[in-house]
């Protein structure tokens, strides 16, 4: 009996790519993630030939494009049309890439044209993906699901664990925190910033604002340490310019953090301002005076609303069944 093989075109170092692969283990004997190949414009020709060689060696029964970016485009170019593919949109790929110009819109359309099944992680992404997908494409709404985080005794911590690229506005979080702790009643609070990217620049900002002793840059954390911070932090902040439905937000909500998020179209129909979290507009982010406002919300109502939301959208098993149904259909 032939071994069933799945190839995932995605970032081999991403915890999310690895979590996605775990949802397919019951359907495939072997799961590989594109690795050892530089998928960037400088190495695009070499990446194409290395990918063709990888495909010849693996002979995958199915390919998953996890994030519709340059990696997915190269793999789509290299693979045979007879190999079925699932395209998974997670956020900036569908929301931002088309805005970068004609070449990027053409890339996205090619990836989707090369796919046989389609998935997006939230309703808004489904709408946006439909603009570039083949006509009458069936787009399945599913995400990776999360392992619920059990809250512990809460401390006066504001936690942020998004990447430090400009998209995620960590500098704006630091400015808002400086404003927050300047008030005597919040002077004991501290800000914990996980992930990496611009630590020196952000540390300089904290020093400039004279709050460096209240801000900790903890770098990349193990899943266990990340959960520990969710569990003990009172407030979680995630204010990117664009996003899908991030697992980090769902994990924070499961840990009963009071969440502050940017007011994004992708949250429409999923979570509500004042009901699940505090949503802040670009103008409010610029004013940097919003952190204390989340403490004024009814925390018990938020917890109850978020339990309902998570049971509907974040259950790992229900999402696993959706992905496995796609596999059954394609194979």
Describe the overall structure.
By secondary structure, this protein is α/β, with parallel strands linked by helices. The chain has 14 helices and twelve strands. The strands form two sheets. Strands 2-1-3-4-5-6 form a six-stranded parallel sheet, with helices on both faces. Strand 8 (190-194), helix 8 (199-208) and strand 9 (215-219) form a beta-alpha-beta unit. It is globular, with a radius of gyration of 21 Å. The chain starts with a strand and ends with a helix.
Task: Going across the biggest sheet, name each strand in turn.
Answer: 2-1-3-4-5-6
First and last CA, distance: 15 Å
Question: Biggest β-sheet: count, sense, barrel?
Answer: 6 strands, parallel
Radius of gyration: 21 Å
Kindly report the average pLDDT value.
Answer: 94
Low-confidence region ranges? none
The structural class is: alpha/beta
> How many beta strands in the DSSP annotation?
12
The assembly state of the depicted protein chains is single chain
What series of H and E elements makes up the topology? EHEHEHEHHEHEEHEHEHEHEEHHHH
Number of helices: 14
């Amino acid at each position: 009996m032939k071994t069933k093989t799945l190839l995932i075109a995605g970032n081999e170092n991403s915890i999310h790519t690895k979590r996605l692969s775990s949802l397919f283990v019951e359907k495939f004997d072997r799961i590989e993630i594109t690795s050892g190949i530089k998928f960037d414009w400088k190495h695009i020709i070499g990446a194409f030939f290395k990918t063709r060689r990888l495909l010849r060696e693996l002979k995958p029964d199915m390919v998953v494009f996890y994030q519709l970016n340059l990696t997915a485009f190269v793999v789509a170019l290299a693979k045979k049309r007879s190999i079925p593919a699932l395209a998974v949109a997670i956020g900036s790929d569908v929301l931002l890439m088309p805005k970068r110009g004609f070449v990027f819109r053409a890339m996205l359309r090619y990836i989707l044209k090369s796919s046989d099944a389609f998935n997006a992680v939230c309703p808004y992404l489904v709408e946006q993906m439909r603009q570039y997908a083949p006509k009458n494409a069936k787009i399945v709404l599913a995400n990776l699901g999360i392992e619920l985080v059990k809250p512990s005794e809460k401390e006066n911590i504001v936690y942020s664990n998004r990447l430090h690229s400009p998209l995620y506005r960590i500098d704006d979080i630091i400015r808002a925190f400086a404003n927050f702790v300047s008030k005597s009643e919040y002077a004991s609070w501290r800000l914990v910033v996980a992930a990496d990217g611009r630590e020196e620049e952000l540390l300089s900002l904290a020093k400039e604002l004279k709050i460096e002793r209240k801000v900790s840059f903890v770098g990349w954390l193990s899943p266990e340490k990340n959960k520990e911070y969710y569990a003990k932090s009172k407030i979680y902040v995630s204010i990117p310019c664009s996003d899908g439905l991030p697992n980090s937000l769902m994990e924070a909500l499961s840990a009963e953090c009071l969440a502050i998020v940017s007011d994004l179209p992708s949250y429409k129909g999923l979570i509500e301002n004042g009901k699940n979290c505090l949503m802040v507009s670009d103008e409010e982010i610029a004013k940097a005076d919003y952190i204390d406002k989340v403490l004024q919300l009814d925390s018990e109502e938020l917890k109850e609303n978020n339990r309902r939301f998570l049971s509907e959208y974040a259950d790992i098993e229900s999402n696993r069944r959706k992905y496995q149904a796609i596999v059954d259909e394609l194979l």
